[in-house]
Design a protein that fits this description.
The chain contains 1 helix and 11 strands; from the N terminus they run ββαβββββββββ. It folds into 2 domains: about 50 residues, no CATH class; about 90 residues, Immunoglobulin-like. It is of the alpha+beta class.
């Protein structure tokens, strides 16, 4: 090339008469040699390798996005509620959960969830018609995490029974 441009290094030699030939025999004169990266001067090799590495890094990171890690947990400062056999007031328990939109499952129909917010759950129970204590659970689900609230209710007291024996 003219004008100071880059000309690749070809394996073509000139003999003492100025005739060009490409190897040991005159038959190799028209032979075309393949260019490899090693035929370029070192300055161009570094630039080329730097460009390839930069291109690879751009392609490797172009599809990436910031990954946000979300921890799933249910933390209950108090995980037990106790109720009398009858005439109970609702009890509110604090819930620290992630994600905050937790769901719940009741183990028994006598357990009731009166209210639920992102940070609490309010529980009440129906009057216990039996003369034995009973227990149940509320299982909270926040994403893949679970937590349990244990519910205990006292037995029906004889004074609560209108049909005393």
């Amino acid at each position: 090339m003219s004008g100071g441009g880059f000309s690749p290094k070809w394996n073509i030699f000139a003999n003492s008469h100025g005739e060009r030939h490409g190897g040991r025999d005159e038959d190799d004169r028209n032979r075309i040699y393949r260019l490899t990266i090693f035929h370029y001067p070192i300055m161009y090799r570094k630039t080329l390798l730097g460009s390839i590495v930069t291109l690879f890094l751009l392609l490797a990171t172009s599809g990436c996005s910031k990954v946000e890690i979300v921890y799933h947990y249910v933390r209950l400062p108090e995980n037990t509620c106790s109720f009398d056999g009858a005439n109970n007031a609702p009890q509110t328990l604090k819930v620290n959960a992630s994600p905050t939109d937790f769901t719940y499952e009741l183990s028994d129909q006598w357990i009731q969830v009166v209210d639920q917010t992102e940070k609490s759950i309010t529980v009440n129970v129906l009057d216990n018609p039996e003369r034995e204590e009973r227990s149940g659970t509320i299982t909270l689900h926040a994403g893949q995490a679970t937590g349990k609230i244990y519910i205990y209710q006292m037995r029906k007291m004889p004074s609560d029974d209108p049909l005393k024996p």
